[in-house]
Amino acid sequence: AADCDGDGTPNGTDTEPYDPCVDDGTIGDEDTTNPIWQAADCDGDGETNGTEDMNGSDPNDPCSVSGVPTIPAPADPNYDVWAAADCDGDGETNGEEVMNGTDPFDPCSVTTPTAQVDPMMPGTAAQNAYDIWAAADCDGDGDPNGTDPAPEDPCDFTAGSTPDPTNPIWQAADCDGDGTPNGVDPDPTDPCSDDGVIGDEDTTNAIWQ
């Protein structure tokens, strides 16, 4: 039986025998030497199936590319596949991030930060995305998102963590409540060491109290 588009589904049972991105759903039976299949971009990530097959990335995974990930053109026939994915695992789809002006490849660039849940499904796209988010430290407190009790609170972290003094979220916070932001505080963990201004203390801060 012929398979004109190389998607692994014979023409007789293929609902779109000339579209290599529409088949019976089986993965791994594609004819990777077929020029029609090679020229298509089934996952909508901006790289053709042939390029991904040659370079070792996954032509069926919109978050797996062989080079530096880039936002594909909306005119790509399968842009919607890429747009529906969440490549950085931050809880917002790529398409939502493009529309909102955030970075779909940065787990810390998001409109509404939310703590993500480990899907515990090794080898899946969902797990790969979560792992990217979990490894990042969005609030700069030195505790990766995956183990941080509050990934968006730079003052709530696992004991022993070393803050990233270049992180703007951590810099702007005042973890010791002395009224001096961490970024300019001579000792951001000592409420008795600050910029000398009196009356700007956060009297509700447990460390200052």
TrEMBL record:
It comes from the Bacteria. Pfam families: TSP3_bac. Residues 1-120, 136-209 are annotated as: Disordered. Keywords: Calcium, Secreted, Signal. Residues 48-58 have a biased composition (Polar residues). It is found in: Secreted. The keyword Glycoprotein does not apply. This is Uncharacterized protein. It comes from Dokdonia donghaensis DSW-1.
